[in-house]
Structures are given as C-alpha cells and as structure tokens.
C-alpha cells in the first residue's frame, strides 16, 4: 500500500509486466499534470512554462527548437492533449469573441 503521494503515482504495481507498469505510471503522471494545470493558477503557470519553452514564438536557434519540442512533449505526452481536431478548432476559435 502506498504511504505517500509519490508512491501512489510511481510505486510498485504488482502483477503487471514491466511495460504495463510503465504505461500505468505514465497514465497516472498525466492525470497529475492535468489536475495541477486544470486550476486557474495552474493554467497561468502552464502558460508561463510554454512561454519559457518558446512555444508561442518563432524558433530560430537550435536551443529554441529543442525548448519548443519539449513544450510539444508536455502538451501531447504529459497532458495527453492528442485530439488534433479539437486542437485545430481551438486555434481558429481563439480569436472569436
């Protein structure tokens, strides 16, 4: 039984293969990310993280490209924002008032 929050997410998963454990831990971590960034303050922090990672800017240097790629990793892998139709719609809806 998990004794702390870290163990609840990353702790031993009995009975599963190593690959299944990795998948389950990744799922649990994504759920944590989504809970944290779903609050108003979390969204503010996420916006700043994406800004720092050059997500909203043109990437010229190799460093900018690497940072931007990590921003995409955060969005698509950690936050599991992989509904490309919704993302595309959001881009066009973002300036509608």
Describe the structure.
By secondary structure, the chain is an all-alpha fold. The chain has 2 domains: 1-38, no CATH class; 41-97, no CATH class. It has 5 helices and no strands. It has helices at 5-10, 18-37, 40-52, 62-78, 84-93. The termini are far apart.
**Could you spell the SSE succession in H and E letters?**
HHHHH
Total number of beta strands: 0
Structural class determined from secondary elements? mainly alpha
- Number of continuous helical runs: 5
Mean pLDDT: 85
Range of strand content: under 5%
* Radius of gyration, taken over Cα atoms and rounded to an integer in Å: 17 Å
Into which percent range does the helicity of residues fall? 55-70%
Main sheet overview: none
Summarize the structure.
The chain is 68% helix and 0% strand.
List keywords for this structure.
single chain, 97 residues, mainly alpha, 0% strand
Annotate the secondary structure layout:
Layout lengths: L4 H6 L7 H20 L2 H13 L9 H17 L5 H10 L4
């Amino acid at each position: 039984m998990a004794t702390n929050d870290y163990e609840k997410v990353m702790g031993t998963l009995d009975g599963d293969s190593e690959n299944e454990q990795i998948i389950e831990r990744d799922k649990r971590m994504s759920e944590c990310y989504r809970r944290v960034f779903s609050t108003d303050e979390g969204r503010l922090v996420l916006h700043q993280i994406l800004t720092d990672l050059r997500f909203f800017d043109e990437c010229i240097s190799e460093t900018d490209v690497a940072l931007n790629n990590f921003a995409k990793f955060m969005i698509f892998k950690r936050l599991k924002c992989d509904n490309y139709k919704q993302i595309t719609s959001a881009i066009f809806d973002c300036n509608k008032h």
